[in-house]
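Table S5 (text form). Sequence records supplied for joint modeling of the two-component complex.
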Amino acid sequence: MVILKLAYRNLIRAGIRTWLNVFVLSLAFLSIVYLKGMYNGMQDQSIRISEDTDMGSGQYWCETYDPYDPLSLPNAHDEIPLVFEFLIDAGAMTPVMLYQGVIYPDNRLKNVMLRGVDPSQQVMNIPSSKLDVESNGYLPVMLGHRMANSINAVEGDIFTLQWRDGNGVYNARDIQVVHIMTTENSTIDIGNVYLDLTLLQNITRLENEATMLVMDKAYSSELPESTWKYMSLLALTKDLRDMMEMEQAGGAVMYGVLMALALLAVFDTQVLSIWRRRLEMGSLMALGLTRMLLINLLTLEGGMHGFFAVVLATLYGAPLLYLNAVNGLSMPMDVDSFGMVLPQVLYPTYSMGLVFGTIIIVLIAVTITSFIPVRKLAKLKPTDALRGKMS
Amino acid sequence: MKLRTKLLMITGTILIAFPTADIAAQNWPDGLEVMERIDYNMVSENQIVESTMIVHGRRSSRTITSRGYMISDKKSFSEYLSPPREKGTKMLKLDDKLWIYSPGTNRVIQIAGHMLRQSVMGSDLSYEDFTEAEELEEAYDCTVIAEETVGDRPTLVVELIAKRDDIAYAKRKVWVDSKRWIALKEERYARSGKLLKTTEITEVFKVQGRWYPKHMIFKDVLKKGKGTEFIIDSIKFDQDIPEHLFTKAALRK
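The corresponding structure-token record, covering 644 residues in total, follows.
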């Protein structure tokens, strides 16, 4: 307890030197929490958006569907197994059909993925009901806002769609854009054209076929056995999580640099402190303070920088992080067109684990950094110290 | 006499006096026969063709020359000779499979799936157009439906309706020169009846006793632009073409 008081008094007495170190450390600490919070928020939101608009709580894929093999896409459809019919009728899952086609907006060729969805479905949060309209003999289609921007399309535009049906026969019809949806999920937007599933099945002559079945988020009953492959949400979001993990690993380099700068300041302070306080250390030892207690005292002084940094960061950082968590961070316009699911406003997630984990890491790092220069005091002779010598 | 009755009488008189198209149709050759005559003109054991393709873009045009070796319509091997950017690019077609070799990457890629719908070198021709291997007479019911003049040549219009529901184009129309037995124009239609592609032959020439297209214009009707010109610079029939040319290994040589 005496050592604790003494360490505290020494630090306060050091004045501006202590507070500069504490401030630098607090900045590093805050930056780490902020960046990690951003990454966590990005991952959480991306998964939530994917789940909401595309993946549901999981999917069943037909045997021939492999999103990583574009050559397999023309055959990525199969008859919906009977075992799922009850669940589809109950609204617990909805079929989606993916089919390749070509559109000619403004007489320019563009390859697209036709997405057949049931207009009455409630599983995916997309305005599919807009497809349930009469469109004066044209095929009604819906586009995402990014796709519409890329082809300069607005609601009401008419252009030609060409495709090869299930038997490989060319077909072409004029389509009309009946709705342009705004979605945060760019993967279901860019390059996609939405049609009524039944209509797509008819024009491709693939009645009652689909590529996948998306399960409702609320579905928690037993999974039916089928030849179709079940993909859990965890499996579906694996790429996303792997990518975030990679990003976090890249971010770790930055944390390392920030911490190294702050710890260097603490290290310097400790080295300087030992050099300048030789007489004081000699006197303390002469008065009966053991070497071990002296080492503890100086290590504690260094470690207390970390503690003060956490307190200071909480004082000025907590309101900043709170405001950031409430208002979020608007992403630049172009970022959401990268082909990955990114929210337009990014809300960071600061979990207790993240904050306390970072506090512990900072405290341990500061304590170790403080201890390294102090180790040599183990050989210090009080007589040398009193004469201003370091042995 | 009422006006309606008068009109009926006049129409009846015209029908008797002048044979209609339906009656004249009986004098037209059978559609299948027309197609066979074209085949007699066009089909050979094999061919070696040097050609020029002019791709008209929005701002400029590109000229690509190539040499192709073909055995019937099942096997073909072609190599681009110019421009320098495309030189050395090779394409191999075996039945309905297509591979392309790019010297820049030194890789052989099979063109399949959605890639088949991409245009060849930015032209109005897709890779899919190259992979069609079935003979028209086998795939379509051919009927002569009219006589028309294309340019200054008399032609028979042959309508081709797909026999099965797995033929790429549900309907085609071919304008056949009725003296030289060579197609001068072709239209390809979607199942919905929408016109998709046209081919126009603006110049023909005689090689080894056969009439053959010299200058063609391919056009994807749904796309903007002037289409793609295809010029046969030279063609030799029934040559000695080594079989090893039609292998994937030949692409890298």
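Note: The first strand of chain B starts at residue 46 and ends at 56.
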